[in-house]
Design brief:
The chain has 277 residues and is α/β, with parallel strands linked by helices. It has nine helices and 13 strands. The strands form three sheets. It has a six-stranded mixed beta sheet with strand order 7-8-9-3-10-11, sandwiched between helices. A five-stranded antiparallel beta sheet has the order 2-1-4-5-6, with helices on one face. The longest helix has 17 residues.
């Protein structure tokens, strides 16, 4: 199996005021194989989103950092982005917590924007898309169950629907790597379930590599094969999601235990119970 993401000695620090800096990531080493579905978990401020943004080439690392390679090509090294970063980003679909749709445009037009990295700039700037690209966008909307809303303004959709439109945009982009940053953080349980099942379907049917940051550990257990936990900018757990023990979670979150529903086909998700302390 080939490597989808390889990170060496990734360090990122922020200067919050003169002579004082905060280290968000501290010499992180990580390797993710193609075809994996991986959950990045950890408390707020642990470095999950920062790590994901470095993989997508949206943030530059410190100059002391090693290379970040995606799909066999270097995205950045020692704090400098690859000169071909625009072409590389076309292979990476980034799904944001706040959807990043243009509310005044139709759902279909938002999905078509996923083609911008693969079209000539002059055609993209004029919003000129081919019949084949439009058909691709409609097919992507069918995949996420929203084809009937193609001509509706994006601003009229619910949060869960908007997030599925964002996933359809990544499908139309034909991204080989999907990075989802807290995609269900602002959604109700039913909408969150549909979004996670959509990502799981893309992973299984299209054989795409999916990396998703999650606060909700129960969703990591249910939908992801592998979990990587960060705390204070360092990896503190990396292994099968099924091996996340109550002790590990207690150390990570201050959570006493994780109730998991074991009945096959129950479709229920366990819940985290706060520690008495």
């Amino acid at each position: 199996m080939s490597v989808a993401v390889e990170i060496e000695k990734l360090t990122k620090s922020f200067h919050v005021r003169a002579k004082h800096k905060t280290v968000a990531l501290n010499e992180v080493d990580l390797k993710i194989q193609q075809g994996e579905m991986v959950a990045l978990i950890g408390p707020s401020g642990s470095g999950k989103s920062t790590l994901l943004r470095h993989v997508g080439g949206l943030v530059q690392a410190d100059k002391t950092s090693g290379p970040i390679q995606v799909l066999g090509e270097t995205v950045q090294c020692r704090g400098k982005l690859n000169s071909n970063i625009r072409r590389q980003r076309a292979q990476i679909g980034f799904i944001f917590q706040q959807f990043n749709l243009i509310g005044r445009l139709t759902v279909l037009r938002n999905v078509l924007l996923g083609r911008l990295g693969r079209t000539p700039r002059w055609r993209g700037s004029l919003g000129l898309f081919t019949h084949q690209e439009r058909a691709m966008a409609v097919t992507a909307l069918q995949r996420v169950g929203l084809a009937e809303l193609a001509l509706q303004r994006a601003s009229t959709l619910s949060g869960g629907q908007q997030q599925r439109v964002a996933i359809a945009r990544a499908l139309t982009q034909q991204a080989r790597l999907l990075l989802a940053d807290e995609p269900i953080a602002s959604l109700d349980p039913e909408a969150a379930r549909r979004v996670m099942e959509t990502l799981k379907d893309i992973h299984e049917r299209d054989k795409r590599t999916v990396i998703v940051t999650l606060h909700q550990v129960e969703y990591a257990l249910k939908y992801c094969q592998r979990a990587i936990a960060l705390n204070n900018g360092r990896i503190v757990f990396d292994g099968p999601a099924s091996e996340l023990t109550p002790a590990t979670l207690n150390n990570l979150y201050g959570v006493s235990h994780l109730e998991r529903v074991e009945e096959a086909g129950s479709g229920k998700i366990g819940s985290l119970q706060p520690s008495a302390a």
